[in-house]
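dude i think i finally got it to work??
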Amino acid sequence: MTVADVMTRDVISVSTATPVSEIASILAGKRISSVPVVGIDGRLVGIVSETDLIRRAEIGTERRRSWWHKVFPDAQATASDYVRTHGRKAQHVLTSRIVTAAEHMTLADVADIMERRRLKRLPVVRGDVLVGIVSRSDLIKALARHRPRLFAEPHTDDAILRDLMERVKALSPSHRLINISVHRGNADIAGLVESGAEREAILVAAENTPGVRAIQDRLVLRPRSVS
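look at this
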């Protein structure tokens, strides 16, 4: 699946002149964590998130200046901080360096970015123009819609066995100590594994093998040597 398959196309966005108070109302009312900022041509120019709004003069949360900064003031940083805490429009608080997604990207690509950058949503752009939003909730919705594939041809026991053995071999370092047999779709799995996590992974692999109807679990933990 790609971003185009799951993204929200009817995007809530604001302009650079949108008041900060209105942006806060949008985030609170729509229960979203950020909103993109676009120009009159639809070009994405930035994003305003909850993080951009938590340090505000209106609620007394401006960042306290340390004694070091008072003794050795940084005029540029002080001015920039003042704009972000007192500015009244989106242009004053937006973050311009943002991570975006493209319609052709896979959901795996998006999940990697969200996890690595700790982001909840990504603006989707075509060139520089905003065309959608893809969020963590969109990935969850895609998961909720997922249904196991239906196969026209019934699986033979031999085909099931080959498939399952390949899966176990790929994930288990103990695969040589595991014996698997399949009869009428019923998988019998016996042998030694190094850990409970490895055993669980093998059983999950069996559950995900097309054609498996039932699983007989006869896996046991390998005894630890005592020195």
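The chain has two domains: 3-145, 157-221.
im so relieved honestly
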